[in-house]
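Figure S7 source data.
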Amino acid sequence: MNETTTAPARPTRQGGGDLRLSFEFFPPRSEPAMNSLTRVVARLNETGPAFFSCTYGAGGSTRDGTRETVARLLSLGVNAAPHLSIGADSQGAIFDLLDRYREMGVKRIVALRGDLPSGMGAGRIVHNAESLVRWIREHSGDYFHIEVAAYPEVHPDAASAAADLEFFAAKVGAGANSAITQYFYNPHAYYDFMDRCGAAGIDVPIYPGIMPITNLEGILRFSAKCGADVPRWLVKRLEGFGGDETAIRAFTTEYLTRLCEELIAAGAPGLHFYTLNRWGVSRAVCKNLGFGVSDT
Ligand code: FAD
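Tokens for the predicted flavin-adenine dinucleotide complex:
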């Protein structure tokens, strides 16, 4: 028997106050997919986001795609933030890209070490995100707002939680303005991370990353790779829907709404959604949270 879920009635909250919203895309691989992303942007833009970001394949594998997607976003009149992964790129290639972005009117960069696509050899990554933040500051001064990644559940490469926090502190020390976390489904991971950041004197805003689940196998595969924990009870609940995508979407929307409500109540400064280029669950959660979406 498939399980069902019923959404409780929610009061409408007026706007998101000072909370910052942002949505992440990957570069579409074709013109029809780019056109479809334009429609996704229109739906998500109703929530009043601060920016839309676009991922970057380390090793330069999506350099053109990221730049073209950012150009399209800017042409739609929204703020766009390219991700920039240091990967195996040379300093010169990164400086060129920074200049191009500046000419295009980009004001925010998500600065990452990145993971090289399989087959390119992880050993070719010789720098980390701290170096990239330093290079951006060295080349462009304070022009860009720099976001970096944070890992409440600890990055898989880290020797320990303490060592991971030291690397995070170093990125902030190098000039990052704020951070976006890897996604997590247990809010206590974020609370604990925020406590540890506070104790270490790290005071930049840290925005929780929120990952909708529409495909259980896909999320389990990706989570195993990036070190995100999908709790057993959540896996069991999702398995109970037997692949019924409508039911999974309804359940995920409710679960993520509660997660976001708790994070906001605990002081999260905003939310960053990993949209996977879809608007459904992200927009529905934002609507539940009162971010200016009136229809269904
Ligand atoms: P870093 O901060 O440099 O390092 C991550 C961790 O590795 C550190 O916390 C530390 O524990 C360890 N480490 C780093 N340097 C050393 C060292 N010298 N010695 C020992 N340990 C070290 N990937 C992409 O390819 N493209 C994207 O667009 C992209 N966007 C992302 C957006 C967000 C918000 C997040 C959270 C992740 C994103 N990623 C992306 C994934 C990210 O690139 C990977 O998690 C990568 O493995 C680490 O990148 P980082 O910038 O966090 O690296």
